[in-house]
Amino acid sequence: QQDALWTDPEAEDETYDASGPPRGARIELVKTIMNRNGEKVQEDGILFGFRGETENYGALSVEGSIRDGGNGVLTAWQRNLQFDGGWRANNGAGMLNTPNIDLARRQYRFFVPTASMQGATTEWMNGPGTQFSAGIGQPGLYTGIRVPAFIRLPGTVFSLGGQTAPAPNWELGVQMVGANGVRLNANSYFKGPELSTTGALASAAWITPGARVQANLIGVDSNLFGTHSGGWVDGWFRGELVDHNAGVFRLEPGLIWGNQQIVTDLQGAYYRANYQTRQWLWDGGVDYAEPVSGSYKGTLFFTGSGRYQMSRDWGFGAGGNVRQGLTDAWSTFAFVDNQNDWGSTRAQINHAQDANRQGTQLTVDQTWPLQQSFRLSTAISLLHEAGDFASFNNFGLSVFGGGDLGNNLTLDGNVQWNSQAGLAQGPSTYVNLALNWRFMPGWVLSAFAYQNNAKVWRPLVVDSPIINPELKAQENWNDRGVFLSLRYEFSA
């Protein structure tokens, strides 16, 4: 949800009413006009939110959106409802997500997702270790540029979970999810197969002030992929000088969590260590991952970096990554930070290389000292990249600046320019400008405009095989837009 933060009641506002229970409201009128690669996109709507504390029914809130064309969002919450015996409850209805127990949320390397739905949830807690939650509804997808929209999908999703603390330092929990007759594509003309699944996650954690170990077992049965299982163990230990994280995992092919994709067909182990003092900061680790199916060989990944703050004005650092296996690659970087009469300066050099391409980039970032209420920073970069068939050089420049033009008017802007991106010819530019005017207590008028004629080139990055998102090396953008909003906020 965008703009989910409320106005700080401690902010200097003479109109703030300190009497009565905490309460507030937010209403925003939004207009968006965009042109994306020749296609005009327009969005009009209203964002709203209301909240208030009550003496007997907890904190009540309603938030949502009204869109021109429909498919708006509406969600109501009741939080921190008190009961005898120390129990507390949170309840929600509308467009929200299926709940997870805390043990499912506390994951170091693997994300256990929730499902977006139109439905209802409830969560009951007693102390730090006892918790029960449930949710059921119709699945859907969030869309929209500035005003959230919700598109419902056929089918039903649900979740049910509970955890307890049966003994000192121990927490045990089970999280169940399911999907029935869910179609994964929102396009009504392309129905595709319907998905039905049931899944369970059992977690056990041993927790002390200086250590934590959590084991997880997962099992899933689906009509499209069959029955599959997996598990992982994560551990953390705080040493006298070094913090350690380590884990092992094995996740069979075909795993799906409700109607959400999770990591699948992967097994291996990892280790991380980090050390920090007032002058020194370093970390390092190793990952190993291979498919359970044996469809390709495993990958070994080493990483490490360090920083030394020599004095108040000077800091130095360096690091690198090495990946061996399906694709061999390595990268390294080094930087220097300096506080000087011209502000704050950082110079960094990066080099990355694999079997098909290599690139070296030098960047210099500068934050300039200006009088109070004004800000200015610049960055320049030089890049040389060579591949099997061609090479190119790129010079980049970006400027960010802004300031408070009086007590109630703020202006910020950003300009980025690159001489060449990848093998595409010609420069690319991105320019934006933002204006915020607080013309009356509680009222803010905002305008944001941008022009983007950019060829986005992603430099070579050497990362871990455990989580390796697939990004396009080059994307072309030619769009511009204007965003207008009139917002009123009240807090007491």
What does this structure look like?
- The chain has one helix and 29 strands.
- With 492 residues, the chain is an all-beta fold.
- The strands form two sheets. It has a 26-stranded antiparallel β-barrel.
- The chain is globular.
- The two termini are 23 Å apart.
Number of helices: 1
Helix/strand-derived category reads mainly beta
Strand content: over 45%
Give the low-confidence spans.
1-11
Order of helices and strands: EEEEEHEEEEEEEEEEEEEEEEEEEEEEEE
Total beta strand runs: 29
Mean pLDDT: 90
* Radius of gyration (Å): 26 Å
Note the gap between the termini. 23 Å
Sheet having the most strands? 26 strands, antiparallel, barrel
Helix percent band: under 10%
Describe the global form: globular
Main attributes of the structure:
67% strand; 26-stranded antiparallel β-barrel; 1% helix; 29 strands; disordered N terminus; 492 residues
Summarize, please:
With about 500 residues, the protein is mostly beta strands.
Give the helices and strands, then pairings.
Layout: E1 23-36, E2 39-53, E3 59-67, E4 73-82, E5 87-97, H1 102-105, E6 116-126, E7 130-143, E8 149-152, E9 156-164, E10 170-183, E11 194-208, E12 211-222, E13 226-238, E14 242-251, E15 256-257, E16 260-261, E17 266-276, E18 280-290, E19 299-309, E20 314-324, E21 329-340, E22 343-354, E23 357-368, E24 374-387, E25 391-404, E26 409-418, E27 428-440, E28 443-457, E29 474-491
